[in-house]
Amino acid sequence: QVQLVESGGGLVQPGGSLRLSCAASGYSFSNYAMGWFRQAPGKERDFVALISKHGGTTYYADSVQGRFTISRDNAKNTVYLQVNSLKPEDTAVYYCAASQKTYYDDRIYSQSWYEFWGQGTQVTVSS
Question: How many angstroms separate the Cα of 18 from the Cα of each of 34, 68, 99, 119?
Fold first, then answer.
């Protein structure tokens, strides 16, 4: 069955960095665009970044542009999110998601655009 397993979260000081990973199995990884979302306590799950199925196109939320970098390794069925210059407001559970859709418009920011989801990894930014 389809599995997306996130890892790499943790407690980090402001200004620190982490690399989140999402290992996929049970489907043809290279045929799916991959995204990252995050959900802070008491808030909605928000779009963070997207990478196209071959890695040639990326999208970022304005709040993380220039600080976060999404990448993928199709040979390892894994998508990454390098998170730098972390701020307390980046504290959230980070989820990866997969979509087989081939068009990229405003719908990529919506959870409904994605077919598969992981269980999330907690990132806490605090001194």
Answer: 19, 10, 24, 18
Q: What is the DSSP letter of 81?
A: E
Residue partners of 104: CB distance under 8 A and separation at least 6: 33, 50, 52, 57, 59
Beta strands per DSSP E along the chain: 3-7, 10-12, 18-25, 33-39, 45-51, 58-60, 68-73, 78-83, 92-99, 116-117, 121-125
**Residues 53-94 pLDDT 10s:** 999 999 999 999 999 999 999 999 999 999 999 999 999 999
Q: How far is 32 from 65, CA to CA, in rounded Å?
A: 22
> How many other CB atoms are there within 10 angstroms of residue 95's CB atom?
23
Q: In which band, very low, low, confident or very high, does the pLDDT at 1 lie, cut at 50, 70 and 90?
A: very high
What is the percent of the chain where pLDDT is above 90?
A: 98
Within 8 A by CB and 6+ apart from 4, the residues are 22, 23, 24, 96, 97, 98, 116, 117, 118, 119
Burial class of 22 by CB neighbour count within 10 A (0 to 12, 13 to 18, 19+): buried
